[in-house]
Amino acid sequence: MTTLFDKIWAEHSVARNDSGEDLIYIDRHLVQEVSSPQAFASMAEAGRSLRSPRRHIAVQDHNVPTTADRLSNIPNAESREQIATLRRNTRRTGMRLFDLDHPLQGIVHVIAPELGYVLPGSTVVCGDSHSATLGALGALAWGIGTSEVGHVMSTQSLWMRKPKTMGVRISGQLSAGVYAKDLALALIHHIGTSGGTGHGIEYLGPLVQALSMEARLTLCNMTIEAGSRFGLIAPDAITLAYLRERVQGAAREHFEQAAQAWAALRTDETADYDRYVEFDADGIMPLVTWGTTPADSAPFSGRVGDGIVPRDDADRDRLRESLAYMGLEHGQPLASVPIDVAFIGSCTNGRLEDLRAAAQVVRGRRVAAGVRALVVPGSTSVKRAAETEGLAQVFVDAGFEWRESGCSMCIGMNGDSLMPGQRCASTSNRNFENRQGQGGRTHLMSPAAVAASALRGRLADPREYLA
Ligand SMILES: CC(C)[C@H](C(=O)O)[C@@H](O)C(=O)O
Ligand code: SF4
């Protein structure tokens, strides 16, 4: 009796070495411009080529400007260089590239599902820690380091020690104004930022089954912030409906046959996970982080520092440092905290459903004076769809900047970044020090909450606008 994780692992394990590592066959590999240059270079130096060129796709995302003139204007020299390097490397090796001007360009974890590139039961890797996002489709998907990227390119395999398994069963219901992002933040608050370390997490239970595919992608995306490299959800009718419209090639031609095989991909009822957590999502409120880890969250009606009980001096020091960095006082009401910037985007919350939720709050209203608000669609496809649906106009009318797609202010590599001391309501996944720009202060929350905060000019509960 085995878990889904173990089944996919066993299916892809082709050898085992003396130190207990398995050689895992990698079905598909995603490449971006930040973590690939060294891997391409060492492969070229060793005189190796791609073992299976068709099993890789590359995309420009972290460094791409989000301004309309980006094809002719990449002001940052380092960004320009990384983008040019990926262009050169993909041309030389015959790897397919979604470049800046490609109609399907976008953040790697956003475009992979859109392209139908991730299939249930497969193994997918990328030199990027948020690759767990793709486990939402029932694949084993995880982030790897640059040297591993080179190994995958030249051998289509990886040596890996099998992690332990962890089942996270989620029950209950999300009330209005509460989204997958709040669920992820609540869960990380509950199990901690190392709660999943060494484990591959499978999310299961009635609430997970009720989530849309986009919400599942958000939940799995945040898995790495709980310390686990793998977030997995067994494929079901929602997965199949999503894939039916998107898969290409043989999987499209033989979809019904494939669907039958995928439907069997689940954890056996009597299988044991190494660790099992039951989480009841009833009563979760819209959440906002106040500190510098994604576990430091509280409801908007709460106060800075709520829910954290320092266990020792080190904990107390960490708390003091994080509040000093954030420029906040312990016990300060969260709803009183003013913001400078509102950012809607990233691989966590840059999909169409996210933009719809934010637009619902924004429609007919105006961004508060003095707040810089921007929407950066997770992919060019999302951007197009949002324009067709009229969402873009809703944002523009309210005073938001409507940008081209990319990672943008999630990480601030492309020139979209916070100035020192600026405070940002953000839909991204990391509130670490300097993440969105040197000295920038990040508050993580859902897209609807960022929208509400942009309108209010301070941290705001989206339900204030959803009545
Ligand atoms: C730059 C990249 C390698 C990095 C990652 O590994 O996740 C980035 O995407 C991030 O979100 O911090
Ligand atoms: S959007 Fe942010 S988290 Fe996602 S891949 Fe880009 S930088 Fe990493």
UniProtKB/TrEMBL annotation:
<keyword id="KW-0028">Amino-acid biosynthesis</keyword>
<keyword id="KW-0456">Lyase</keyword>
<keyword id="KW-0100">Branched-chain amino acid biosynthesis</keyword>
<keyword id="KW-0432">Leucine biosynthesis</keyword>
<keyword id="KW-0408">Iron</keyword>
<dbReference type="InterPro" id="IPR036008">
    <property type="entry name" value="Aconitase_4Fe-4S_dom"/>
</dbReference>
<dbReference type="InterPro" id="IPR018136">
    <property type="entry name" value="Aconitase_4Fe-4S_BS"/>
</dbReference>
<keyword id="KW-0004">4Fe-4S</keyword>
<protein>
    <recommendedName>
        <fullName>3-isopropylmalate dehydratase</fullName>
        <ecNumber>4.2.1.33</ecNumber>
    </recommendedName>
</protein>
<comment type="subunit">
    <text>Heterodimer of LeuC and LeuD.</text>
</comment>
<keyword id="KW-0411">Iron-sulfur</keyword>
<comment type="function">
    <text>Catalyzes the isomerization between 2-isopropylmalate and 3-isopropylmalate, via the formation of 2-isopropylmaleate.</text>
</comment>
<dbReference type="InterPro" id="IPR004430">
    <property type="entry name" value="3-IsopropMal_deHydase_lsu"/>
</dbReference>
<keyword id="KW-0479">Metal-binding</keyword>
<comment type="pathway">
    <text>Amino-acid biosynthesis; L-leucine biosynthesis; L-leucine from 3-methyl-2-oxobutanoate: step 2/4.</text>
</comment>
<dbReference type="InterPro" id="IPR015931">
    <property type="entry name" value="Acnase/IPM_dHydase_lsu_aba_1/3"/>
</dbReference>
<dbReference type="InterPro" id="IPR001030">
    <property type="entry name" value="Acoase/IPM_deHydtase_lsu_aba"/>
</dbReference>
<dbReference type="Pfam" id="PF00330">
    <property type="entry name" value="Aconitase"/>
</dbReference>
<dbReference type="InterPro" id="IPR033941">
    <property type="entry name" value="IPMI_cat"/>
</dbReference>
<dbReference type="InterPro" id="IPR050067">
    <property type="entry name" value="IPM_dehydratase_rel_enz"/>
</dbReference>
<feature type="domain" description="Aconitase/3-isopropylmalate dehydratase large subunit alpha/beta/alpha">
    <location>
        <begin position="6"/>
        <end position="457"/>
    </location>
</feature>
